[in-house]
């Protein structure tokens, strides 16, 4: 009877499903890179396509960062406002309690 500890120490067998899957993923990655580099488009068109995709990705990331920054700023402003109201209410309650005890 094998335990999980024994199974974890067994190296990947050459014909195992995990080994086959790993080689499949590696082959797909190599094929994708080869397909881009050997595409019927010219090198200039391919570089332009890659550049455009890169710039679009950067613009999307920057847009998300701006949106997140705005949201965080709004949350901070709201928290500041709520804390200010709580402090003001505390001061009023303290003044009323102090006036009532003298």
Structure characterization notes:
- The chain has 102 residues and is mainly alpha-helical.
- The protein is built from 3 helices and no strands.
- The protein is elongated.
- The termini are far apart.
Give a short synopsis of this structure.
83% of the residues lie in helices and 0% in strands.
Key attributes of the depicted protein:
3 helices, 102 residues, elongated, single chain, mainly alpha
Tell me the strand percentage band.
Answer: under 5%
Largest sheet: none
Low-confidence stretches: none
Mean pLDDT: 83
Helical amount: over 70%
Number of extended strands: 0
Can you tell me the overall shape?
A: elongated
Helix and strand composition category: mainly alpha
The helix count comes to 3
Distance between the termini: 83 Å
Rg: 31 Å
- H/E element order: HHH
């Amino acid at each position: 009877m094998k335990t999980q500890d024994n199974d974890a120490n067994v190296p990947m067998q050459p014909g195992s499903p995990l080994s086959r899957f790993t080689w499949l993923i590696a082959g797909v990655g190599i094929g994708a890179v080869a397909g881009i580099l050997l595409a019927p488009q010219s090198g200039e068109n391919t570089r332009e396509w890659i550049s455009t995709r890169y710039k679009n990705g950067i613009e999307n990331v920057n847009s998300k960062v701006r949106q997140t920054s705005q949201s965080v700023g709004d949350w901070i402003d709201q928290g500041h406002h709520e804390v200010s109201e709580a402090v003001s209410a505390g001061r009023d309650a303290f003044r009323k309690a102090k006036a009532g005890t003298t």
